[in-house]
Amino acid sequence: MDLEKLRETAAEVAAREDVKYLIGWKKGTYGYRVAPGFIEDADGAAELIFSPLCTANLATYLTLVEKLPLPRGEEPDDRKTALMVKGCDSRAVAQLLVEKGIDRENVVVIGCPCPGMVDPELLAEKYPETEEPAEVKWTDDGFIVIRDGEETSVSRDELLAEKCRLCRYPNPVISDIMLGEPVETWEPAEDEGVNEVENKDVDEREAYWEEQFSNCVRCYSCRNVCPLCYCQDCILDRLNPTWVNRSVNFSENTAFNIARAFHLAGRCIECGECERVCPANIPLGKLNRKLAREVRDKYGFEPGLDPEAEPFQASYKPDDPEDFIL
Amino acid sequence: MSANNYEPNIVAFLCNWCSYAGADLAGTSRVQYPSNVQVIRVMCTGRVNPLYVMNALQQGADGVLVSGCHPGDCHYMEGNYYARRRLGMLKDLMEFIGVDPRRFHMSWVSASEGHKWKEVVEKTVEDAREAGPFEGFRRRRIDW
Fold first, then answer.
1. This model's pTM is above 0.80
2. Can you name the residues that pair with B98 across neighbouring β-strands?
3. Which of A198, A249, A258 is facing B93, going by the closest CB pair?
4. The domain over range B7-131 is classified in CATH as 3.40.50
5. With an 8 Å Cβ cutoff, are B89 and A265 in contact?
6. Which residues contact A67 (CB under 8 A, 6 or more apart)?
7. Number of domains in chain A
8. What is the pLDDT of residues B68-98, one digit of tens each?
9. Which of A118, A210, A276, B129 has the fewest CB atoms within 10 Å distance of its CB?
């Protein structure tokens, strides 16, 4: 994508009277780091980037913003928020619109067609982080890693993130402004991770998840980073009734993970953020993708495509499958 | 508890208008069915939070049964349709996480189906018995 055009558009949008700030990606302080940038005026737009390192889903900041009580006599700032989105992020925005988590008029969506992101862990493993800022760029059939002034071209398959391998919507599904031409969609890979677990028998699955969930430290990063986990009163924080005890053990960890995954059933847009931020490397994406697959195959529903759709768990069809009923 | 005198502990969520009345009919008709079920009456299956199922298993149930009106017969018009969708998803998730699918059942029992209630309970208890005591993610220490 043309960075000049991106910055130009961003500057235009950020300078608009009715826009509070623009949320985009900017370079982090070292190595491959990319940080979210909150751009309030046209000048700030010069530091925005869009590269294969921009894995973060910025849609989470739409609901994360703290709404403090206003001092007397002060008017609320109801200007719009502009947001840069990839394909998956735009689905999060669409799903938020479905759930009325945000208003369409309060957000300006700047769509960035996404040819696929690199897996940050895989990248750091093969080409270790440097103290100096490093860069990754797209080429026609892969990536170029630029670190310490040295350019290495890498094939696409080598570094492509898992969520991008499985991606079906690399182009934003909703946008007010589209940057550049839509990218050509690719055939999503078979979801080996979920298949592998599915093919185990019940006891093996239990052992597998016991091992994974026992690592959970219950930092709730997965919940906090998720663009769709935005309940002000989360059941995990609630003490009365206590759905999930605070102790960190296998039982409570499993309960937490079931609750988290279940609350995203029919809502998860598979941006893979939960998995990326997990300090214990629990494959949370597998849980989400398994449920997304069931929702897609059994109920013919895909979240985050149509802002006018009915929410999955708050709607029904008379002919929903009931083969599990006695 | 040794395997041969193991009696499964089943928690059943019954809707007030159909299944609870069905179970009541089974009682008044003197239909004999296993006494392993602990019935919890709810106003509608649509009111059953799927996390109740998880919580019941955590707190010592070996099996969970949710039973409501037949589709189309819901006292609140559509509650059981929502329940079907949600609990269907929950069953898939539980199975994926490694909970034996025999531990969770859902059924439609109307107020006139005392005998169907008996069959459902027999099936649930039998399945839970086969699956054995639930050790998975049950709370290990309950101090209160």
1. yes
2. none
3. A258
4. yes
5. yes
6. none
7. 2
8. 999 999 999 999 999 999 999 999 999 999 9
9. A210
CA distance B107 to A27: 55
With respect to residue A325, please indicate whether it lies within any of the assigned structural domains: no
In 3D, which of B87, B91, B135, B143 has the Cα closest to residue A245?
B143
Q: How far apart are CA A2 and CA A8, in angstroms?
A: 10
CB-based contact (8 Å) between B82 and chain A?
yes
Taking each helix axis as running N to C, give the angle between helix A284-299 and helix A192-199, from 0 to 180 degrees, rounded to the nearest 10: 90
Contacts of A197 in chain B (CB under 8 A): 96
Identify the helix (H) or strand (E) that includes residue A177. Answer: strand A177-178
Asked, for residue A294, whether it belongs to a domain, the answer is: yes
Residue of B nearest to A206 (CA): B98
Alpha carbon A92 to its chain's center: 7
- CB atoms A320 and B85 under 8 Å: yes
CA–CA gap between residue A130 and residue A232 (Å, rounded): 39
C-alpha A240/C-alpha A62 separation (Å) is 28
Q: Is the pLDDT of residue B2 over 60?
A: no
Cα A288 from Cα A299, distance rounded (Å): 16
Residue A270, domain member (yes or no): yes
Q: Which domain holds residue A272?
A: 192-314
Task: Give the single-character DSSP code of A168.
Answer: S
A-chain CB neighbours of B101 within 8 Å are 202
Q: Å from B102 to nearest chain A CA? A: 11
CB of A259 closer than 8 Å to CB of A235: yes
**What are the two backbone dihedrals, phi and then psi, of residue B19, each rounded to the nearest 5 degrees?**
-65, -40
Asked if residue A139 and residue A221 are part of one domain, the reply reads no
